[in-house]
Amino acid sequence: MASLFNQVPSISTVFALYTSLSATTLILRKILNDIVPKPLRDYITKKFAELFSSHFQSNFTFVIDKTWDFCENQTFRAAEVYLKSRVAGLSTRELPVGSSDLKNPDAEINFGVPVNTKIFDEFEGIHLEWIMHNVESNNHKYVKQYFRLTCKKEFREKIMKDYFPHFAKSAAKIMRQRENLYIYTYNQMRSAWEPAIFKHHTTFETLAMEPKLKTTIIEDLDAFAKGKDFFKGVGRAWKRGYLLYGPPGTGKSSMVAAIANHMNYNIYDLQIQSVRDDGELRKILTATKNKSILLIEDIDCGTDVSHRRQTTKEEDVKLQKDKKKDDFGISLSGLLNFVDGLWSSCGEERIIIFTTNHKEMIDPALIRPGRMDVHILMDYCTPYVLKKLVAMYLKIDDHVLFDPIEKLVLEVSVTPAEVAQQIMATKNADIAVNGLLEFLGNKKMEKGDGKVEKEGELEYADTKEA
User: Fold this and answer.
1) CA neighbours closer than 13 Å in the CB half-sphere of residue 70
2) 421's torsion region: left (phi>0), alpha (psi -120 to 50) or beta?
3) Which residues form the AAA+ ATPase domain (predicted)?
4) Does residue 99 form part of some domain?
5) What is the 3-state secondary structure (H, E, C) of 174-228?
6) Sign of the CA dihedral running 250, 254, 260, 261
7) Which of 362, 378, 394 is the last residue of a domain?
8) CA 202, 208, 212 angle in degrees (round to 5)?
9) In which domain, by residue range, is 394 found?
């Protein structure tokens, strides 16, 4: 026993050895820092960390970024929708809650996904852990969002094969049952689309327009919604373009609302004149989601990009040379490339709607077949449209003054908005109808001569076939 104790080094010896090793380590570190470049040192450190993680850690983590290949990551969107249904009983200090029904204080509370909070889920006996992270950029211009999904390393393949499709299908089911639609506007300062609850109550049932035209539009929309296999089979992006044109007040915005409510699609309202250049346009448009409407109102206003070109090719070249380097604005080719070029394939099941009061001012390249597939003339009132408006607002189907009113409608140009304004002045049907007759009579006198207006038209930009 005594000999064993004699072999144990003294404290002073151990301390001397430790000091020697520390000094040697510091010298080696100094030499490495001076000789080995920092990128190489970082690479070696990373590889050692990966080696350690793969051999000694039992967990595996999937990282799901909000964006993927310049588009919104649909897996991120599915995870966000799915997890909102899993947080009701979450044990945490903070939980985002809210209601979109401002008129009903007793409306059911909706939950959001809390940031930097563990959300646990279970799938076929496998325990899973979700965390959503927000990382703000140094200049505070944007926030990077991503999910981390952690499981035991041995379940990695099963999670990829079975769990990802499971929560994606669950999210799709929730989306189909969503109660609210949203209208988005783009915030340039934050480089993000900002939503607001869309509560427009116009539907095709309440939309005042010719029955044949309405039926044709509904059938076209339904065929588009069911056309995934068709578009894939012919090698085209799953999108549909609608051009709504006609005088102001003829119901173009109401038509957009009716389409959104019929398809259950969110609306992205883009003010194209505020877009700085083609690069920003691509960034804005690729951030929109599937099953949505991209709306560009008054496409002929606010920018020269959509205007019908009157110059020759030589003049176009000269104009480009004379253009200042610091000029901003999108180009026609930039807009066309997204509407019908390679960038149009970034996403699917999307409807693009242009509205204009002056179709003749738009460059033909922008509204040719494959871009704006269907052209819908939103025109002045016809006798049927007038009766529909009176029936909705005044709750009457007939009146002794209908005959003279119908004759005047065929002789003057009056918009549905003008008719609605007149009959909304009072709830008394007789007074409202008399006021409408007087209004139309005054318009005829101002006009001086009669003119029969066309009824609403729908034109297919390709072959005039559905």
Assistant:
1) 14
2) alpha
3) 238-382
4) yes
5) HHHCCCCEEEEEEECCCCEEEEEEECCCCCCCCCCCCHHHHHHHHHHHHHHHCCH
6) negative
7) 378
8) 115
9) 383-447
In this structure, the answer to whether residues 256 and 169 fall within a common structural domain is no
Which residue type does 89 have?
A: G
Query: Could you identify the residue written with the tokens 């005088």?
Result: 247
How many domains is the chain built from?
3
Residues 347 and 431 in one domain: no
Contact 353, 262 (CB under 8 A): no
Asked if 295 and 332 sit in the same domain, the reply is: yes
Q: Which two tokens stand for residue 289?
A: 């989601």
pTM to 2 decimal places? 0.66
Paired tokens of 419: 């008719």
Q: CA quadruple 64, 66, 70, 73: dihedral positive or negative?
A: positive
For every one of its 466 residues, what pLDDT tens digit does the chain have, with 9 covering 90 and above? 555 455 656 677 766 776 777 777 777 777 777 777 777 777 777 666 666 555 556 889 999 998 877 677 889 989 999 998 888 767 677 778 777 666 666 666 778 888 888 899 999 999 999 999 988 766 656 678 899 999 999 999 999 999 999 999 998 888 777 667 889 998 887 778 888 888 888 999 999 999 999 999 999 999 999 988 888 888 888 889 999 999 999 999 999 999 999 999 999 999 888 788 888 888 888 888 888 999 999 887 755 555 555 544 554 444 444 444 334 467 777 777 777 766 666 667 889 999 999 888 888 888 887 788 899 999 999 999 999 999 999 998 888 999 999 999 998 989 999 999 999 988 899 999 999 999 999 888 887 644 444 445 666 665 433 3
Q: Which amino acid is at 43?
A: Y
DSSP state of 343: G
Residue count of the chain: 466
